[in-house]
Amino acid sequence: MEAYPAPYVQHELPLVYLSGLGEQEDSLDTAPLPRQESGSRVTTNAETCTDERAQQLLKELMKHDGSSRAWNSEALPGPTASLHYRMKPISRSFNLPPRKAAPLPQAPSEEGKTTPPRHTELHSTLSPLSPGSPIYPEGVMTPLWFTKHQHSVPSLVIAFFKVHGNDNAARNEQVQTDINAIRGTLGRSGYKTRLSVVLLSDKSILDAPELEEHISAIRRATTMDPKTGLFFMPPMSSPAEIATFVRSLLSTLQPLVVEHYRDLTKHARRKKARGGSASLASSVERGGRSLSASGWNVRYEIKQGVFAESRQEMDVAERHFSAAIEELCSSEGLLETKPSWSSIWNDARLLCDVVALRVVRCQLWVGQTTGAVISWLNYKARTKDLVDRRGMGCSTYGWFAWEARWAEIMGQLIRRASLPAFQPSDEAVPTSAEFSAMRTHLPPEKALATERIAPFEQLHHPGYWFVLAFEATVARRAKALDISEEDRISPDQTPASAVAQRSRNYDTYLAPLPHEEFVLPLEGGHDHHLNILEKLAGEANKEFDARGQHRSAKRIMFELAQELIKATRHSKALDLLVPLWEYASSGDSLWNNVYHPLLQATHECALHASNAGVFLSTAWELLSFEGSQLSRSKKSLTDYIRDQIPTQGKLTTKTNASRHLSPVQISLAFVEKETHVGELVGCQVSLCSQSTLGAAPLIVSRVDVAFTDGRTVSISHEKDASSASARPMITNLPSIAGSETSASVKADLSLLRSETRLFNFFLGFREANVVRIRDATITLDTDAFNLQHTFDEDNLLRSRAVHVGNEEKAEQYMLPWSDTFSVTVLPKPPKLQMAMHGLHRQYYVDERIALEFELKNGEEESINATAIVRQTGKSDSPLSIQWNEQNALSGEVAVGKVERDASRNISINIDAILHPAMLSFEVEVRYYLTSEPDTPLMKVLVTELNISRPFEAKYNFGPLLHSDPWPSYFNLSAQEEEGRAEGLPHRWRLGADLKSNAEDELSIRSADVTVDQVSDSTVCDVAKSDLAKMHALRRNETMPVESEFVTRKASLDDRRPMEVELSLVIKWTRKEGTAETTTRLPVPRLQLPSSEPRVLCTVEDDASEEDEVMLHYHLENPSSHFLTFALTMEASDAFAFSGAKYRALSIAPLSRLRVDYRLVVHDRDEDRSHEDQNSGLWVWPVLQVVDSYYQKTLKVHSGGSRVRVDEKRGLAVQIKA
């Protein structure tokens, strides 16, 4: 936008004068208008407010100045509806420009009398109707009109005066006088500038009540509006209060400012409706020329647009500016009616450019981003059509200069708009989230979202437009180079006819004349094209880099360097190319199309700039490309460098394969995936020449291969006496022992074009580790230069194959692993043999484990060893492991010296494990050979233990009849032994079916029930089990275990239930062992009633008859109440019974009764099929016992042998065979 007058492109803001706070120079102000006699000057005598509060007030007011703010509606703080202002601090005295031009002087008549003028109406000093105007008589607009409203005609004057709370009436009267003077001068000036006064006081009205009277007097004397004309500012202590006061002040005065520009708009609209004004001067004086009606329409449309822009009604301003463009380009407009060679046509074109710029700015302000681009494109197309029809055409440097300027203006407008999505990050390295938020282009606005919008019609960031300007400038330079030598001669040295001919051949609209566009001679002179290109490329590079578009940023710099090369500015081009060459990655596919031209350009610039280091490095890379000068040469690389850049000293340079190409590629591979310390492993190095040199071979001086263990293997060049065609493809090099940290071997390293050489050698390692190939370096060392090219691991050629040579050719063998750059070096394999004896497949809970660890020396000499045993893995069951040795300490035992082929046994004891688990432990033996005490060796033996439960049991429980008589409730003995339990004895039976889960056969030595815990005031006596002999139990086999116990309460008065916790204790051994193990199986907790009645059934053993049995039913009442029971014996077809069928019994407390029944089997022969010859016949008598009070049926329990209870059929009695 620098090519246009600054007032044309400056953003319109309401001008506000701040009088009384001191004067500040505004760098944006243009030169003031010349003072005219008819102008108005405002002069006051009050002193300027210069105290600290006044300066803080001025600072807050200037925060609302939008002159340097972004061109958008959100650039200032405060409410979104608040205006931006152009705040201008001025002195107490200031000038206003004249409203009307001075009257024309009247020529006297022949008689000496003045002739009255034909027209007496006066117009503005900048009107086309005023003879003194710079655009008189047919101009449309002048930048001075914009300057007038931007800097000289304020919409509002805010005057600041101090008022005092004392009785100093003179000062207060002076304030009244000054206010009236300002009002009077503004009224006489002809402008509708508003005035507001702010009275500053050092005291508040509360502190000085007389202030209220003074302020009222000033208001009455000046007739100022108390709401918008007169404001009082008491003392304020904090900047926040001052800021609030300023916001309130401007919010109140904003309607006045808006109304001022509305009045100006109405005035312009009325004058437009009149169709122009009559001319004051005669047609002879003006030469018969005047502004057309279309020109007047353009003038007033622009004025209305400017006033709307001042009100910040950007949509209204955009409509007026668009209408002005249509008027200028219409069939009756200036651009169509005036000749293209006239200055008026150029002025109209410049004005059209400025109005189009303002249209785009207004659309960006309101967020019509795609609309702004479409307007920019449409105006460019319209201008191109206009220049093609009425100008010099679009093939001149002038057109391309305008095209570049128009694209640059778009980029500058987007920058000044400061769209949030286009703002770069403040950080040096923006994050990925900031990159995504900072877009490269914006989608269409909602109004155009449903239309088909081309990609170039969407708004892109400023870098895109700077690139367009750059490309147009390149085309401009190309056209400038076509200017003939005659037209490049200065006009002072050219005939006038030739100069006139130039104006008809060249478009110089906002462009230099031909002799200035392309100065003769250019060599060593100033080239303004390159300056423009450097500026545009720098701006585009900055925008692209800020958004992470680094390739685009580098691309524009590369194009700039190409233009510098065309201008033979090789040193400057090299400064640009070297960073690009270092940044560009030869292996990046995105740089494939650019890398070769970039490399060639850098090479040529280094040659012309005599940069030997860059020239050597680029020459080395160019060996990989066909078509370069070096590839066509028959010379060697050394001769080429020496001939092109003769230097006194030896060149030295280093390059890396991560960024730069190499005509020699290296591939390395280990032929084995694993090896051991002290053993040799094969390694193959492959050199593949991709050089484009013709007949001359490429001689590599040295190849250095570095490994991660710090070792380096160097292969130095040694010329082979045999010819190149006769030498083998594979060269075997000497082996390199592990003790050598740096080894050097020799081989023929000369490479012909497209030749591959293979080198085999063996390496040994002293330490166990994973060894990788770190990097490889190729060195070319001649008398002219020393070049080192390094290949990192990522840049080496990967190959899963190795070549094995025979007499005729090298055969390729694929390796069965992918990572051929590494080899795993394992520790030296120990020859110590270890074994664990006495280990069973399964161990059991509560079993102690005894093992025998055997250590056998298989080394070639004696050893000194130490054994460590520890648990491995994660488990909730820790192992308690001990060596059965006196010198063992914390799991470690010193084995001592063990001779060759000798053995040593050590016992290991493991305490019993209490829970099933899968456990493991290891025995680590550390030893060293007697001859090598500094070389530790180690071997580990891991042993797993499967711990499980050997048994499981199912329990059955029931009551038994206790044979002792119960004590009488009515005759209790008072002579009981002290401490003896007095409660009723209860006999119980506990049966267990013991099942073996062990894989081995176990021998059961005993199985007894023990008491773990009983409830309070309870005694439990357990009878010893009757297991008489050892019982062998195999897997899944079951054996019965019967036990009895008696419980008794300590007192007869204790009626609480009894709780008993028992365990089944099993002592067993393995079949082949004698060590006894005790396993404890917990019995579920038993709840035993102590005061509930029950019925027990027993059989008399001494019955003499074969088919009959005597049953005894025992009814027990352990409670303290009398109980009555109803007994009913049910009849059966299987037997007959003797006894009462129905009977009622009353039982005293703490007593029991017996009821007898004799049973006789009816027909035994019919039940032979159901008779067990060993156990006899079972019958099922049913006796119902019902509690008469509670109507509860009591269950009949088995009280002894030959009686059992079935859950489904009830009670069964055995009749002997």
Automatic annotation (TrEMBL):
Domain Gryzun putative trafficking through Golgi, residue spans: 657-1215
Residue spans of biased composition, Basic and acidic residues class: 110-122
Limits of the Trafficking protein particle complex subunit domain: 345-624
Feature: compositional bias, Polar residues: 37-47
Region (Disordered): 25-47, 94-133
Pfam families xrefs: Foie-gras_1, Gryzun
Cross-referenced InterPro entries: Gryzun, TPC11
Protein name per its UniProtKB record: Trafficking protein particle complex subunit 11 domain-containing protein
Organism name: Hortaea werneckii (Black yeast)
